[in-house]
Amino acid sequence: MIKTCFDLYLIPYKMKSFLLKIFDNDYAERYYQSKKKLSDESIDWLRVIPFFTIHLIALTAIWIKFEWILFAAALGFFVLRMFAITGFYHRYFSHKTFKTSRFIQFLFAFIGATAAQRGPIWWASHHRRHHVNSDQENDHHSPHIHDFLWSHMGWFLAKKNFFTDRKFVKDLIKFKELVWIDRFDWLPPSILIMLLYFLGEYLSPVYQISGTSMVIWGFFISTVFVYHCTFAVNSIAHIWGKQRYETREQSKNNFLIALITFGEGWHNNHHHFPGSIRQGFYWWEIDFTYYCLKFLSLFGIVYNLRTVSKSLKQKHS
Ligand SMILES: [Zn+2]
Ligand SMILES: [Zn+2]
Question: Quick one: which of 137, 139, 117, 119 has its CA closest to 128?
Answer without folding.
Answer: 139
